[in-house]
Amino acid sequence: MKRRAFITLLSGAAAWPLAARAQQGGGMRRIGVLLGLDESDADARSWVTAFRQRLDALGWTDGHNARIDYRFAGADAVAFRAHATELVGLTPDVIFISSQPAFDAAREATRTIPIVFVQISDPVVSGFVASLARPGGNITGFTSGEFERGEKWLELLKEIAPRVAQVTVVLDLENATNVGQFRAIEGVAPSFGVQLTKADVHDAAEIERALEVFARKSNAGLIVFANPVTMGQRELITSLAVQHRVPSVYPYRHYVTSGGLASYGPDVADLYRSAAGYVDRILKGEKPSDLPVQAPTKYELVINMKTAKALGLDVPATLLARADEVIE
């Protein structure tokens, strides 16, 4: 080979994009994605975009050196199991999951393929991992915070609506995360001077009945837990809360942008980007058992002033000053 041609070849190799090098080293890699979201949901699409863009930045491009197989199950328990089985059958190098039902389905389908999760609270208490520092097995990921975050929701509700004395928690009792969060709130409710009840809901009809019954109570307030049902029906929940003039607190920003009063929780898009980082490390040879489970680093307090005015609430200036976002 002539010297000039050889130098040109070396220069071209040095300029290869990272994605091309990854493909040369390990061929096409496969990533399974199982989400407790509806594919048509705008927020879901934005989080998936954050996940994919982070993978792109790390050198994994869908259709080039990686194949990403997406499955959206919404709140359909049967779909979770079917999608998890289907994804495992595709023999991916790693599976990324979001939500408790997605986690349960994926864990049931495989105990060997690496799994990276987001939006699972207290995985140690729930028995999903051995410890946060050394999760063991084939599972690691990013929590949505400890169960005790529920105390923050109750504190926020009382601060924004001090007269609230009866609080109903909207949840799914088949969701282990929801159960743990309810127990945490139940333990501190007396110190806030509130009587606590729960509304176990699984579809729109049950949500409508629960809120209609609860709205008849005096000095009522609402705390909504995150799960595929409340996520998919968040516009119904927030509109009913306003219709019945019930102050309500939610776990994530997207409930408030859908009309909810206030929320306190982690930045979901940031969790998805962080999960992409772990997917990258696993594709490059690290074991999930050696990757510590991490807590959120970015939390958001969001208040919807339009909803506050509709409910006749005067939001304290001190609370507005602490808010990361105020929706007018």
Description:
- There is one protein chain.
- This protein has two domains: 19-145 and 267-298, Rossmann fold (3-Layer(aba) Sandwich); 149-266 and 300-327, 3-Layer(aba) Sandwich (Rossmann fold).
- It is 44% helix and 20% strand.
- It is built from 14 helices and twelve strands.
- The protein has a seven-stranded mixed β-sheet, sandwiched between helices. The chain has a five-stranded parallel β-sheet with strand order 2-1-3-4-5, sandwiched between helices.
- α8 (204-214) packs parallel to α10.
- The chain is elongated, with a radius of gyration of 22 Å.
Layout of SSEs?
Elements: H1 3-14, H2 18-26, E1 29-35, H3 42-57, E2 66-72, H4 77-89, E3 94-98, H5 100-109, E4 115-120, E5 139-143, H6 149-160, E6 166-171, H7 176-188, E7 195-200, H8 204-214, E8 220-224, H9 228-232, H10 234-243, E9 248-250, H11 253-257, E10 262-266, H12 268-283, E11 299-304, H13 305-310, H14 317-322, E12 325-327
Parallel strand pairs: 1-2, 1-3, 3-4, 4-5, 6-7, 6-8, 8-9, 9-10, 11-12
Antiparallel strand pairs: 10-11
Helix pairs in contact: 3-12, 4-5, 6-7, 8-10
Mean residue pLDDT: 90
Query: Which percent bin holds the helix content?
Result: 40-55%
**Computed Rg:** 22 Å
Biggest sheet overview? 7 strands, mixed
Which blocks of ≥5 consecutive residues have pLDDT under 50?
A: 1-25
CATH class of the largest domain: Alpha Beta
